[in-house]
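README: folding subset

This subset contains proteins for which both the sequence and a predicted structure token string are available. Records are stored as plain text. Below is the entry for Tripartite tricarboxylate transporter permease (497 residues), shown exactly as it appears on disk.
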Amino acid sequence: MDSLTSLMSGFETALTPLNLLWALIGVTLGTLVGVLPGIGPALTVALLLPVTAKLPPVSAFIMFAGIYYGGMFGGSTTSILLNTPGESASIITALEGNKMARKGRAAAALATAAIGSFIAGTIGTLLLTFAAPAIADIAVQITPSAKFALIMLAFVTISATFGGSPLRGLLSLFLGLGIGLVGTDLQSGQARFAMGRPELLDGIDFITVVIGLFAIGETLYVASRLRKGKFNVIKLEGGAVMSKEDWRRSWGPWLRGTALGFPFGAIPAGGAEIPTFLSYTLEKRLSKHPEEFGNGAIEGVAGPEAANNASAAGVLVPLLTLGLPTSATAAILLAAFQQYGLQPGPLLFITNGDLVWGLIASLYIGNVMLLALNLPLAPVWARLLLIPRPFLYAGILVFSTVGVYSLNNSVFDLGLLALFGVIGYGMRRFDFPVTPAIIGVVLGPTAEAQFRTALQQSNGDFSIFVRQPFTAFLMLCALAALVVPQILKFRAARRAA
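--- output ---
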């Protein structure tokens, strides 16, 4: 009952005219950036961080949440009509949805994706409403050594999940950890990796890092490939609609996808990629029409899209209760909290309950807005795919540069932006995942602080990380997440040989 009372209070906050306006702006922007290929909610939130610094925290996070959910809705349009998944979680949607579109069933594919996203998002938000306070109550009792072990588990699982190679994921993580160490050590007062530059004594601004790696890196990568391949957008006439047969074949995958997506989003295991593939495999096995899979099966769109959006709600559970981001967008949201001097975790529900519950209530409202925007206006969103990419990415480049310069009015920051842009391009070019680097930058200082606190409490005794059962269990899980997949891969290679 406490959760329901708090949620009602959150609706009072979210339903004010100003916050409703920010929610509408957020879901509209989110759908827009989800539709445009190569631009996702993580990049958009990062670009808006300098602009929203003066907004009230509740309004800013209501808008960010709308962008997050809207990006999940809009991404299906690109996958279905352009066969270009904006994120790895949309690969399955592109596989089946584009085949449906080529058969003249684009409207049905877009409708099942939008309605499935709405159902999964609503159920996921409902689970978030009741799960988050319970986890927050437990999280208050977690010791610093266990928090450090939990962060290590997140580091390992996210690095091993994103990208095709665990080694590349770990190298990306170490890059982020190194960037996070730049600046003055608060305990000893010594400068670390500052290279004699006074501008680096306060560390490197997270916004500069993330805009450089995401926005500039992506712009350079797209510019280098603009002449490679043509984009064939399938035309859409009328709104997104479904027949009775489509409804009959979709409702089961929607529910099963939601059941798979939420728990995978809530654990530090890499976001939505795994549940979307699991959902696709499950629907193929359960389907009465398995011959349609690979040729445009509606279940292959409904299930993965539901899993994708349910995982988005699940990602907010560890972010709000433990301060642990499990995706790139969650890492940037964590940086947004820190921008306002807030630290997500169990105490956030006590110290800033109006913000947390206003944010959760806005997710219900945003889901309704997104359904209203995506079903009747599907042809409008489809036309956005015709925007020439050079114009689009040139605008991103200008907006990124102005946003970073406005932080401190510093030319040095622009130099750092260019440097991280080149690094981001290299990571995209050689298939190094960017997400582990971003999470390393955000969580690295927190991991260091928890490690030091644990050692101070144990008088420098390192055995505290194996003596406490819960801490030892988490450390073993981190080790298993790193070693077990390699053993399985080695055994599979031997069998193949």
